[in-house]
From TrEMBL:
<dbReference type="GO" id="GO:0019752">
    <property type="term" value="P:carboxylic acid metabolic process"/>
</dbReference>
<dbReference type="InterPro" id="IPR052940">
    <property type="entry name" value="Carb_Esterase_6"/>
</dbReference>
<protein>
    <recommendedName>
        <fullName>Sialate O-acetylesterase domain-containing protein</fullName>
    </recommendedName>
</protein>
<dbReference type="InterPro" id="IPR036514">
    <property type="entry name" value="SGNH_hydro_sf"/>
</dbReference>
<feature type="domain" description="Sialate O-acetylesterase">
    <location>
        <begin position="1"/>
        <end position="120"/>
    </location>
</feature>
<dbReference type="Pfam" id="PF03629">
    <property type="entry name" value="SASA"/>
</dbReference>
<dbReference type="GO" id="GO:0052689">
    <property type="term" value="F:carboxylic ester hydrolase activity"/>
</dbReference>
<dbReference type="InterPro" id="IPR005181">
    <property type="entry name" value="SASA"/>
</dbReference>
<keyword id="KW-0378">Hydrolase</keyword>
Length: 123
């Protein structure tokens, strides 16, 4: 990811934000769920350092669901990150498919609008 982003910048591109939607697998094992915030804050710092962009806007999605019983732990970690220029869009309440894990198409479109709104609001 970082090498492709760096190459894009070298060829004239601009990185204005990073959108992050991940964490479902971290809901399975309690230790992973409890380490989520620390791991995510480190990842954000590492990405900003690697891209030489210390104030890069990060917009993350707080999970709508998860594979395990520690969904609330991961969601709390996601919603609790207070690093500068990190925003969180909450997917809770969006409709899920029958697998109770993935968003429906309509919910994916809604989430896309929510992410766009968060990006535009931070400009």
């Amino acid at each position: 990811m970082v090498s492709r982003a760096t190459a894009a910048v070298k060829s004239g591109g601009t990185i204005r934000a990073l959108l992050w939607y991940q964490g479902e697998s971290d809901t399975v094992v309690q230790a992973d769920a409890e380490a989520y915030r620390t791991n995510m804050e480190k990842l954000i710092g590492d990405i900003r350092t690697d891209l030489n962009s210390p104030s890069l806007l990060i917009i993350q999605v707080a999970l709508a669901s998860g594979e395990g019983k520690f969904v609330d732990t991961v969601r709390s970690a996601q919603l609790g990150i207070t690093l500068p220029n990190v925003k969180c869009v909450d997917a809770k309440g969006l409709d899920l498919k029958r697998d109770r894990l993935h968003l429906t198409t309509t919910s994916q479109v809604r989430l896309g609008s929510m992410l766009a709104d968060a990006f535009l609001a931070s400009r």
